[in-house]
Amino acid sequence: MLSNPAEYDLAEELSSRSLGDGANVGLWPGMTIYRYVEPTVPKWDEIQSLSVCIVAQGRKAVTADGHHYVYDRYQYLVLRSNLHFRSQILDATPDEPFLAFVLQIDPAVVRKVSAEIVGRRGSSDQAPAPTEGQDQGVVSELDDELMSAVLRFLRSLDADSDRRVLTPLYLQELVYRILQRDRFSKLLLIAGQQDDGNSVAAALNYVNVHLSEPLTVDILAGQVNLSPSAFSRRFREVTGRSPYQFVKETRLERARELLLERRLGVGDISVAVGYASQSHFTKEFRARFGTTPGEYADADGLSCDLRAAR
């Protein structure tokens, strides 16, 4: 637990880096800052890499594989990769918006840091073997050391030289502080179960950060130094989908979120999620959601979400 929560300003740090309501990406690969001024209806989402979500203000609920997690200010949730889950913002107001950030972490970083810890503690501290029915995540409390590491990580993103030199080190420190907590063995277990491979995880991060840009198989394969055929085969083995299918689904899901935020018109959203043709965007959106983007954004579209959540 934090000894003096008043001295920390994590909410202020996240608010200053948020361009608006909803998901804010681009500050660091795999990092998203979330800001909401009112509660949301439950919605389904998916993560591709081991992820940590830290709440600075407000309260959130996540349901994954039958397990329900509720966490709020100065708590964090760790979820394994390739997980389909339902999330809902429970507490948020214009005066005190919900503020949190999600950081996808390469399992190799966790294993590297944990190996150093195990090396000092001895092999008896290694994580137990996986067992059936275990939770897919962990909720824990922030303490002074972890909060300090989080703030150093965020503040290092402001300057290019700090990003190159300090941010990777602070990321490792953040992982180290989490592993030092009482859930050491559980997080090691989650990290040890990651079998998606660094190449696919890196490609997924690239897609999320560059969603408005062209994203062909050749481009994604080039990002991870694989041939297009080898990359496509590995990607399908890990995700169960082709790179093309994944990119299309990610674009349409992001478009749906932007429509519900009501800050951009359909044409601007089409461009923001990488469609060169608005008519093509409308056709694919209708095929996935059963309605046009414009219809989905109106009151009828919102009420459909509300009815589905009941």
From TrEMBL:
Keyword set, alphabetical order: DNA-binding, Transcription, Transcription regulation
InterPro entries xref list: Homeodomain-like_sf, HTH_AraC, HTH_AraC-typ_CS, Tscrpt_reg_AraC-type_HTH, Tscrpt_reg_HTH_AraC_N
Database matches in SUPFAM superfamilies: Homeodomain-like (SSF46689)
Entry GO MF terms: DNA-binding transcription factor activity; sequence-specific DNA binding
Top-level taxon of the source organism: Bacteria
Domain HTH araC/xylS-type: 201-299
Pfam family, one: AraC_N
Protein name, UniProt field: AraC family transcriptional regulator
Organism listed in the record: Mycobacterium yunnanensis
Upper lineage: Bacteria, Bacillati, Actinomycetota, Actinomycetes, Mycobacteriales
